[in-house]
Amino acid sequence: MTIAHSEEALKTLMLLSLDGDEAAYRRLLNALRVLLVGYYSRRMGAATRADMEDLVQETLLALHSRRATYDRNRPFTSWFFSIARYKLIDHHRGRGGRMMAEVELGEDFESGFSEDAVTARMDVERLLDSLPAKQQEIIRQVKLEGQSVADTASRTGQSESAVKVGIHRGLKALAEKLRGET
């Protein structure tokens, strides 16, 4: 991965584009096009060049239509490549095939970036969105970010007991949801 295609560089371009910088947005799309061609070419095997180009275009259009949903505090490449992965899965489903995308992006992406981790994080976020805001916040802080119960309690203005109970109830509700009980 080159410096121009690093998480930091791409996220900076995305943030600038969200703030209205059209030149940054064009640079971002060009950089992402290069990354997508490599990403899809490794995963599509015998697909035609036209199929791959269509998929690149669909992914960039999805980025454009969903860019307002990007959370500025989260990694950009994780968010973007989850879109790319879902577009690839949709492509294979549309063709009637059962072939699925590979899980790892490859060595050319920054170490520590794993598509499995991105997908898992998106699933966790979707689940957390079903909880009340206070429970979401304390579960994120304690269970996902590794903060202490005491620190979370002081930040949220709750007692430590209330934080523990909130986490317990929230996790119980998520478990019920996963079992299909709610």
Compose a concise summary of this entry.
By secondary structure, this protein is mostly helical. The protein is built from eight helices and no strands.
Give the topology:
Layout: H1 7-18, H2 22-44, H3 49-66, H4 76-94, H5 115-128, H6 133-144, H7 149-156, H8 160-179
Main sheet record? none
Query: What is the count of β-strands?
Result: 0
Count of helices? 8
Unreliable segments (pLDDT under 50, ≥5 consecutive)?
98-113
Radius of gyration, in angstroms, nearest whole number: 19 Å
Shape: globular
SSE class = mainly alpha
CATH architecture of the largest domain: Orthogonal Bundle
Name the average pLDDT.
Answer: 80
- SSE arrangement, N to C: HHHHHHHH
Distance between the termini: 44 Å
% residues in beta strands:
under 5%
Assigned CATH class of the largest domain = Mainly Alpha
